[in-house]
Amino acid sequence: MDRSSATGSEYFESLMKAGQQAVKQFDDTLASAMGVEAGPAKGEDISPLTVVTDLQRQYWLQIMGFWKGMFPNPSAATGQSRDRRFQDEAWQHSPYYDLIKHSYLQTSKQLAEIVDQAQVDDKSKLQLRFYARQFIDAMSPSNFPATNPDVIRTAIRTRSALSGPPDAWCRGYSRSTTRSCPGRRSELR
């Protein structure tokens, strides 16, 4: 009986070592694909696999928090977004626009965190931050007519179609409001 339990223990130990070697090999492959060394960075005991795993965990915690927030909680105070792109009331009161806004903000935050945790030199990190910010700003749902409640409301009110050339509905939008067309600067025309 001792012999079978010893054999089971040895088998389990060899299985654990094989698993550790597989994770190490995956970590090394991930590190080479990311262009970083597999060892700890700057005196920290963090491997690329740990960084990726932690980012995924943080992302899913945010997603779970978002879905928990979709169910009304009367005791929770509702805070207004300080982002000027989401000042229209529809962003707060319409579940459709609220979902779009929160998805965008969570994804933007996640992308910024990925850039901040990149294991690159300072100059490259500054460039990554700049390009990530440009991408994040360009992908804002307020920049697209189909996801901008102000543009849709104006199109309905003026009975204009959004299916024509962008310049046509942009001119109509600018004439019907005091604002310029989203994504365009009227002073440059």
Specify the overall morphology: elongated
Radius of gyration: 25 Å
Number of helical segments with 4 or more residues: 7
Strand content: under 5%
Query: Can you give the mean pLDDT?
Result: 74
Task: Describe the protein.
With 189 residues, this protein is mostly helical. Helices cover 63% and strands 0% of the residues. It contains 7 helices and no strands. Helix 2 (48-69) runs antiparallel to helix 4, helix 4 (95-116) packs antiparallel against helix 5 and helix 6 crosses helix 7 (166-176). The longest helix is centred in the first third of the chain and has 33 residues, at 2-34. The radius of gyration is 25 Å and the shape is elongated. Mean pLDDT is 74; it is low at 74-79 and 185-189.
In short:
The longest helix is centred in the first third of the chain and has 33 residues, at 2-34. The model is unreliable at 74-79 and 185-189 (pLDDT under 50).
What distinguishing features does this structure have?
single chain; 189 residues; mainly alpha; 7 helices; elongated; disordered C terminus
List the helices and strands and how they pair.
Layout: H1 2-34, H2 48-69, H3 90-93, H4 95-116, H5 122-138, H6 149-158, H7 166-176
